[in-house]
Amino acid sequence: MELNLTEVLSWTVLAREGHYGRAADELHVSTSCLTKRIQRLESQLGTVLVERGPGGVLAITGTGRLFAVRAERLLDDARRLATSAHEPAAPVVVGVPGFDGARVFEHWARNQPPTVRETLATFVCWVGIAFDHLDLALKSQRVDIMLTAGASTQPGIRSTRLWPLDRIGLVARSHPLSGRRTVPVEQFATLPFLRSAAAPPDWMSLWCLGDVRPMSEARMVEVAPRSMSDVLGSVARGSVVAVSPTLVGPVLPPPVSYVRLEGAPPAWYFAHTRHDEPRRVVTEVLRLLASIPAEQTFA
Amino acid sequence: MELNLTEVLSWTVLAREGHYGRAADELHVSTSCLTKRIQRLESQLGTVLVERGPGGVLAITGTGRLFAVRAERLLDDARRLATSAHEPAAPVVVGVPGFDGARVFEHWARNQPPTVRETLATFVCWVGIAFDHLDLALKSQRVDIMLTAGASTQPGIRSTRLWPLDRIGLVARSHPLSGRRTVPVEQFATLPFLRSAAAPPDWMSLWCLGDVRPMSEARMVEVAPRSMSDVLGSVARGSVVAVSPTLVGPVLPPPVSYVRLEGAPPAWYFAHTRHDEPRRVVTEVLRLLASIPAEQTFA
DNA sequence: GGGGATTACGAAGGACGTAAGAATA
DNA sequence: TATTCTTACGTCCTTCGTAATCCCC
């Protein structure tokens, strides 16, 4: 079912060496063992990684080469994950949307005034959550606090309003609207929107301008983004637009530009916690976050 | 040696359920099997993931929870890697520095004039390479073309000069130089520099301003970045500065800002290929890249 | 014949399930 | 006594190495 990383590692070595004998030596196994590892991997992936000839390895296939170079990253990530398990963990885990969301909030926390900064640094660990796990992350105890835009209607979850949130529209630089400073929000709402079916509707609504016109009137294009960079990639391709917090405006890659949304209704960041949260330190962090004045947030 | 993803998956399920019986049901194994999977994982990681009590699971440890939420991303990456093996591979693999470098070049390729764009789209696949694998990637046949700044002195590698390259200085927003538009390059060169020991010196030199003053005079801080975001993270923490291509200027996260380097010597992008590269399509892509006028690059 | 990969086969080890055990409540 | 996890133990399957095989140069 799941990939076997030993087999994956074996493939990266074989792809590099181009020779079963040398790769097997490097891995400290027999060539027959390596043969079988590669065969298992190939049958599991359902692809041919290497072209065999009677005189040995004829060639690494295109698929195999691409798999090797991508696999190297996975192996590296796996090793980092394993070593990160030794580091001490902060007691309060705060989730933010998107795998790459954590970085933004880590930065933000570091730029707070000293008392806030140090409290956050000692008690809080930021983690990015895939868009389709946003409400599961809280319920399954993955995180203690989930920071998103918009309140949750999920049972058992308490939402605390934090800071005001301005939204901007993201369009490809090749899009007709690119270059405009401002677009009426009603006009923007008629464009085809990027939509993640798996994301909680409570949360998705704000980013599809569900508060401007009924969601049923929105034109949607389904994608399955896990992180903001996936969203930006889709937008850059040109067929859809998206809405995001002002926060990401200065971080956009060159092929994406943003427009201000004129007349957009007000929106807020919310902190979500479990209703039965027993831990004092969690409520203290929540209080701290709520006490931060709007000017020190992302305005 | 390598992490076992079946065990990792089992842990994410157990951490979510907080109960061996339910988690085992969900995984379609017996509780005793699950017990042993978790024990193996714990002994391999060398940490305690769950506090056991006689009445069952007492609590998931902080380490265990953080491991679970991070592991979910690894599992997702692994599944994506496995499915990506079915997609057809472009014949020419072009490597760019840093795991996240590919995205920038994909965007860039998409914004070329139609003929160039379509040729690149059909023949080229961009992959990001960790900084410490830059010259290995070519030799081990991982990539056909490696795009970096600076020529290579490695034997067997042919470097083709492509486009002029402007460099900027990256500093934390809290850094004294932040806010300055321009800094004399000699002054910037005296700051403590981020340095990756594993990266090839040929390549690292440009980013440590080795062409401004001898590398021996540079103040270095060792880190092991794999991608531009690792670099940006170190810079944001405030103790070091870095140099990057102008290209990343518009992509910086809020806590990092950039200054122009006044008087920086000229630099170039280079395409590196194996000297014995037999494939016609590779040289054709190389020729295409070289033919792109400077204005259409990253100026 | 020699180099290179796969297949055959037997051995070792790992992973699994059933069932018993231990510790609460 | 019911619940929950761990341990004991037997079974089966996987993985490995040695050695034989196949195939071209």
TrEMBL record, chains A, B:
For this record, an example GO cellular component is:
protein-DNA complex
Where would I find the HTH lysR-type domain in this sequence?
Answer: 1-60
- Transcription among keywords: yes
Pfam families in alphabetical order: HTH_1, LysR_substrate
Checking InterPro entries in the record gives: LysR_HTH_N, LysR_subst-bd, WH-like_DNA-bd_sf, WH_DNA-bd_sf
Please give one Gene Ontology molecular function term for this protein.
Answer: DNA binding
Q: Does the keyword Transcription apply?
A: yes
- Top-level taxon of the source organism: Bacteria
Keyword annotations = DNA-binding, Transcription, Transcription regulation
Family of the protein in this entry: Belongs to the LysR transcriptional regulatory family.
**Protein name in UniProt:** DNA-binding transcriptional LysR family regulator
